[in-house]
Design goal:
The structure holds two protein chains of two kinds.
Chain A lengths: L1 H19 L8 E12 L5 E5 L5 E6 L3 E12 L2 H10 L1 E6 L3 E7 L9 E11 L3 E16 L5 E13 L5 E5 L1 E7 L8 E5 L3 E6 L5 E7 L4 E3 L4 E6 L2 E6 L4 E7 L4 E5 L8 E2 L20 E8 L3 E15 L3 E7 L2 E6 L3 E5 L4 E6 L3 E5 L4 E6 L3 E5 L4 E6 L3 E5 L4 E6 L3 E5 L4 E5 L8 E5 L4 E5 L5 E9 L7 E3 L4 E8 L2 E10 L4 E8 L3 E5 L12
Parallel strand pairs in A: 2-6, 2-8, 3-7, 3-8, 8-9, 9-10, 9-11, 10-12, 11-13, 12-18, 13-19, 14-18, 15-19, 21-22, 22-23, 22-24, 23-25, 24-26, 25-27, 26-28, 27-29, 28-30, 29-31, 30-32, 31-33, 32-34, 33-35, 34-36, 35-41, 36-42, 37-41, 38-42
Antiparallel strand pairs in A: 1-4, 4-7, 5-6, 14-17, 15-20, 16-17, 37-40, 39-40
Chain B lengths: L1 H14 L5 H13 L1 H19 L7 H11 L16 H21 L12 H4 L30 E8 L9 E7 L11 H12 L8 H12 L7 H13 L3 H13 L6 H13 L3 H16 L6 H12 L5 H13 L4
Antiparallel strand pairs in B: 1-2
Helix pairs in contact in B: 1-2, 1-3, 2-3, 3-5, 7-9, 8-10, 9-10, 9-11, 10-12, 11-12, 11-13, 12-14, 13-14
The chains are: A mainly beta, B mainly alpha.
Chain lengths: 524, 335
């Protein structure tokens, strides 16, 4: 009996020991190994490093030897995956004394169960050229004390450049870029990122030409930047007496050129328009990015920003909004409404004054335009629920839909369907609709009176047709080149306002329907 | 009722087209006028079609031997010789149909007026019955499968009369007919998915508007947990091929909302649209869909990342498209 109990206890302990060492207790397997290699290299040779996952430190020094220390860490949830990782990750050292290529080799289709990280510390002669590529994820990429040219191309991580004298190109997507010049810049630098902040530090007596570009961020400097000018969203300025070009460009982050010893908190923005500046359409890109969200504005609302999402519940005066990019949503505007966006959807509610809305790309939705106005998009859908006054609607490509119009309607799209529904309370309304590729549907009440002139130009007259619910219209067909023109003209219900419809490669429907009119609530 | 019984006896033979023409016509006429026999006939046809989809399996030798051993005492020289038919499969199917349908009928017809066949779960579960009606450009139908009653006043045109083989008594009448068909079913039914795919992809065949079709697909499948990948693939084809920019905008927008079943092909269509579509709104919708895919940890590929990177940095691209491309990139976690 005692022997049995002892065996049971021993078995239990053994099982618990095994389990504690496995993922069943939440642990994962990891293994780490270190490799050090030395290679001869010419003083002006090149060192190329290709490492997808892991940090890279390149430090310049004396001599003619490249010393590589690579620490490989593999992590997996089980031993089998760990072995798979170990079998599939290799470090490669290639090249000759002119070019040394240091690579981490991974299989093209990697098992997602394991991860690898290889951290490199590489000592190089100061004069070599350094090229780092293929980096997908790195805690940091650091290059220090290198006089040759430096090229870094990566996806995410912090890039640190210290004492790099030669020409440099840094191209990142996410992360941050910190560039520290230990002496005056003498070679061109091009530093680009998509979502990263760029901070560059220079000695106080530096001379260079600064080119900066950002859409969402700011352009900051603690230098006295002279002769500053904008070309679109790109800034050109001179620091000191000018000289080599330092190009900084970040799509969503800030770019800063800072004097050593100064603080970024003291930096001045150079994006604001100078006094007396002649207004230009792209000026809005020089306004810092903002985010606006408020329930109401008790008066006029004037707003401009490069990138902005604007949400205002109610404007009790006039609204004037300009954005470089972003979504604009205005719930109600008691006065005139003028919204211009270089790109992004516009969602406008009850507009009681005249309306002007334009976007470079995106849909425009207007719940009610009581006084009418003009709505245009370079590409996107236009949808108006209620048009109380004369309206002009334009789309560079996209459908136009009007749920109810009570006054002159002029709708045109380069490609898309046009669907217009007339106010059943109106006996006759002037309409012009045109699409260069698509259908036109005009819904009106059975007693709607108009002079109809509808034309279809089509290369397939068997497919594209007129569909008319009214009598008294004559349809003619004629050949125009290799296309057929189908034209319907005539008076319906005794004639009235002119209705001109033109569709290429599409159908035209004039449909008689018993419609329910939309009624708008009066503003409180 | 005696009439019904005799008609039901005819049904297996009708199914295998073994009835003489007079009895065949008589049976058809009865089925059309008798609701109970209609149900019975439908059950027969369903069973028949299910049997047709089952795989033919070889009888294991051991079973075959045991079976032959058991039946061998009954075999006598007086047994009428069995003449092998050229197509034994239909006979086996007919026999199986009679056994299953007969058993179900025997067990159920006194309890309920309607006879329904319940397939054995072990063999018939998950087997989709073959459809009885297919939407086709043209079809040939035996007269026996058409009801003698013509409903309404259908518009029949382009009538032709054929008598391909004067030696037999078969004639043919072919014609064009326009009939309005309403297909009902769940959005996930394969037949419905295929029909919608056809509607979406055949721009010349649809009236009045593909935009409306895409709107409807979006509103319908947004509520379906995992819409069939065929729907997203059809939308991807629309995005690639449709000349109408308004339609392409809606296709890209709908793909964004149906992301749960996005395949590599649909992702590639969005990448292609972002790269090359001349309409900024299409590019905008495409980049928004890709951004959403990136946020959800969807499958990224180097071409997609590269395209987003180029778009974010492309100076002459619409600013909003660039911003959205940058947002998408910020969501990507390299793997």
């Amino acid at each position: 009996m005692r022997v049995t109990v002892r065996r049971t206890v021993q078995t239990f302990i053994a099982v618990a020991t095994v389990l504690s060492a496995t993922q069943l207790f939440g642990a994962s397997f990891a293994t780490s190994s270190r490799v050090t290699r030395e290679f001869q290299i010419d003083p002006a040779g090149s060192v190329w490093i290709d490492n997808q996952f892991g940090s890279i430190d390149v430090v310049g020094g004396e001599g003619n030897v490249v010393t590589v220390t690579a620490e490989r860490t593999l992590t997996a949830p089980d031993q089998m995956s760990l072995k798979d990782a170990s079998d599939n990750v290799a470090l490669s050292f290639e090249g000759d004394t002119k070019v040394r290529l240091i690579r981490t080799l991974l299989p093209p289709m990697r098992n997602a169960r394991w991860t690898v990280m290889v951290n490199y510390v590489i000592h190089v002669p100061r004069g070599v050229n350094v090229k780092i590529g293929g980096s997908k994820s790195a805690e940091h990429i650091r290059v220090a004390n290198v006089n040759g040219s430096v090229t870094i191309n990566g996806f995410s991580g912090v890039v640190m450049m210290e004492g790099v004298v030669g020409a440099s190109v840094v191209n990142m997507v996410n992360g941050r870029i910190i560039y520290d010049y230990t002496q005056k810049p003498v070679a061109r630098a091009q530093v680009q990122a998509v979502n990263a902040d760029i901070d560059m530090w220079f000695p106080a007596n530096s001379n260079f030409e600064w080119v900066a570009n950002t859409i969402n961020g700011d352009m900051l400097s603690t230098f006295n930047v002279k002769a500053g000018r904008f070309n679109g969203s790109v800034f050109h300025g001179i620091v000191g007496s000018g000289g080599t070009t330092i190009n900084t460009e970040s799509m969503m982050g800030h770019v800063a050129v800072l004097m050593k010893g100064s603080n970024i908190a003291d930096a001045q923005s150079i994006r604001m328009n100078e006094p007396g500046h002649q207004a230009a359409p792209n000026d809005v890109l020089r306004q810092p990015a903002k985010k606006i969200q408020m329930p109401f504005v008790n008066g006029d609302f004037v707003f401009a920003a490069s990138v902005a999402d604007v949400v205002v519940g109610e404007v009790r005066g006039n609204a004037r909004v300009e954005t470089g990019a972003g979504e604009v949503e205005l719930g109600a505007v008691f006065g005139q409404c003028n919204v211009t966006s270089l790109g992004g959807p516009l969602n406008l509610g009850d507009i009681m004054g005249s309306l002007f809305a334009h976007t470079g790309a995106g849909d425009i939705i207007v719940r009610a335009s009581r006084m009418g106005g003009q709505v245009t998009t370079d590409g996107g859908l236009v949808r108006v629920i209620y048009a109380g006054g004369p309206m002009t609607l334009r789309s560079g490509g996209g459908d136009i839909i009007v749920r109810q119009f009570s006054a002159f309607m002029d709708a045109e799209t380069a490609s898309g369907d046009v669907t217009l529904t007339g106010d059943p309370a109106q006996k006759s309304i002037k309409v012009t609709a045109r699409t260069l590729q698509g259908n036109i549907v005009l819904n009106v009440s059975p007693r709607f009176a108009a002079d109809i002139d509808a034309t279809i130009l089509t290369s397939d007259p068997e497919v594209n047709e007129m569909h008319l619910d009214f009598n008294g219209i004559t349809i003619r067909r004629e050949q125009v080149g290799n296309k057929t023109r189908i034209r319907a003209t005539g008076k319906i219900n005794g004639g009235g306002e002119r209705v001109e419809l033109y569709a290429e490669e599409g159908d035209i429907y004039i449909s008689a329907q018993t419609l329910t009119p939309i009624r708008l609530a009066n503003p409180k | 009722m005696p009439d019904c019984d005799s008609m039901r006896e005819n049904m297996p033979l009708l199914l295998t087209e073994s009835l003489d023409p007079a009895r065949r016509e008589l049976t058809h006429q009865h089925i059309e006028t008798c609701p109970m026999c209609v149900a019975e006939w439908s059950a027969y046809k369903e069973t028949w079609s299910i049997l047709d989809t089952l795989p033919e399996l070889d009888v294991p030798a051991r079973v075959k031997q045991r079976f032959l051993a058991e039946v061998s005492p009954a075999v006598t020289p007086n047994v009428v010789p069995f003449r092998r038919r050229s197509a034994p499969r239909w006979l086996a199917q007919a026999a199986a149909a009679v056994i299953i349908a007969g058993g179900a009928f025997y067990g159920g017809h006194r309890m309920t007026p309607r006879v329904e066949l319940t397939p054995t779960p072990a063999t018939l579960v998950n087997v989709q019955p073959a459809p009885f009606y297919s939407i086709a450009e043209s079809r040939v139908l035996p007269a026996a499968s058409i009801s003698p009653q013509i409903e309404g006043r259908p518009d029949i045109q382009n009538v032709q009369f054929t008598d391909a083989s004067p030696s037999n008594d078969q004639i043919g009448v072919s014609f064009d007919i326009t009939s309005h068909v309403t297909v009902t079913g769940r959005p996930t039914d394969k037949s419905m998915v295929r029909l919608l795919r056809y509607v979406l992809e055949n721009e010349d065949k649809q009236s009045p508007s593909r935009s409306r079709a895409i709107d409807w697909v979006r509103s319908t499948y947004a509520h379906v947990g995992n819409p069939d990948p065929e729907i997203t693939e059809a939308l991807a084809n629309v995005l690639r091929n449709d000349d109408n920019q308004g339609v392409r905008i809606k296709a890209a927008d709908t793909l964004r909302s149906l992301q749960s079943t996005m395949t590599d092909g649909t992702r590639d269509a969005l990448v292609e649209a972002l790269k090359n579509d001349p309409n900024p709104a299409v590019r905008l919708k495409a980049v928004e869909a890709l951004a959403k895919l990136a946020r959800s940890g969807g499958n990224m590929d180097p071409d997609m990342v590269d395209t987003l990177r180029k778009k974010a940095s492309q100076g002459d691209e619409n600013v909003y498209v660039r911003v959205k491309a940058a947002e998408a990139l910020s969501s990507i976690q390299p793997k």
